[in-house]
Amino acid sequence: MKLQKRFEHGNLTVEVYGGFGEVGGNCIVIRDGDRKLVFDYGIRYNVMRRYYGGRIEPLGPAEMIKLGVVPSPEVTEGTQALYISHLHLDHVGLLSTAYSSTPIVFPDRDIARATIGAWYEKSPRWLAYIPPRNWDLTSSARVLSEDKDSVIAIPVSHSAYPATAYIYMGRGATLFYSGDFRLHALVQFFPSLEESLQKLGVNSIDVAIIEGTNIGNPAPPMARSGFEEIMISSVKTFDGVIVSVDPHDFEAMMFIYRVVEKSQRDVVIASERIYWMLRVIYEKMPKHINKTLTALETSKQPPPIPLSSVSLVNEVFKDMKRYIVVAEPVHLLEHLRRLKVHGREIDLTNTVALLLDPEPRETVREVENKVLIQWLEMFGAQPQRVRLSGHYQPQQLKQIIQILKPKQLIPIHTEEPELMLRLFEKYRRLT
Ligand SMILES: [Zn+2]
Prior knowledge:
Blueprint: E1 5-9, E2 12-18, E3 27-32, E4 35-39, H1 45-51, H2 61-66, E5 81-83, H3 89-92, E6 104-106, H4 109-120, E7 138-140, E8 151-156, E9 163-169, E10 174-177, H5 193-200, E11 207-211, H6 224-237, E12 240-244, H7 250-261, E13 266-269, H8 276-284, E14 292-295, E15 309-310, E16 323-327, H9 329-341, E17 351-356, H10 369-378, E18 382-386, H11 397-404, E19 408-412, H12 417-428
Helix pairs in contact: 6-7, 11-12
The chain binds zinc ion (ZN).
């Protein structure tokens, strides 16, 4: 992967190897004297889609590196650490291609292992190169305190949990790297960006590398209030409520619980890939566990904490009013297809299926929405796509600039870098 852009601020150099003028594929190298840090190591999906599709799959990492789909391993040479902002693949990339001595910092190492580790390690496809080669060289980011390389993790809201922005307290300058983020969380169980900076005593930033996914987007995605309205009215109106949740999207899951809390329904988890969340729910909001069941048909493996289970076929689909079914799309389809094969007549009339589709450009989609919708309709359910964004809304950029007060802006993860810079020039005068 070639160098896309180089920026200088005093003695600090920022090299962008992916994510400039494009959504996804972030890879940023910071040099400060003898110190070298890498932020994210992502897959560039806009390049990937150009060369692959259907049965044309990557031959392996060498080809992907050659085509510039992923960063070249040399960017990790001699680095103190590689910091990952969150677990979407356009930020994680093929970690096992990094230099073998590279320490990798995740927002939460255990969650990384329970998700990208467990899902991809045994994959027969190129996905097997996503987990790091050696988990012993990985660690969890230091939240709101400085690590040995002067990096501080700031928890932020995103459609992959946990997500962190990072501040580098450089020798001559401070740098902020946003990863992907929403300004307001769906469920706020960590300090806001503003509060975090206050806690740290950081009043302004020298260089801010900020994502701009939604800047210039003519179809602005749904905000929290829209999602809340759909959830509440669905629970009120429909007998059945099925929600397909991306298996990284813990915040959406917590939001579902918040709505369920006010109803008589229980949450039925019908996908193994969502199981990792149960441990986090147990730690953060244990009361929700009492309202949670697992689907009997799902599990080859038991959930990480003991839970009662319920049969989708014999109980849930016969009395949908009592439940909200949460599943990732592929599993949901699997259940329905099996029923069809076995000739079971399932009538899901007056059931809504909310398909959360947060970041279509930032990950591999395992099932096409069109196909999913066909199947759901065949069973009488009403599918509804919910485009809840994991990114801040365009009108919030001004507020972000006011919070960070950066001297220099580097736009990343956006198709509109020029527009972002022009907006920055306007907003900075107001700070
Ligand atoms: Zn993301």
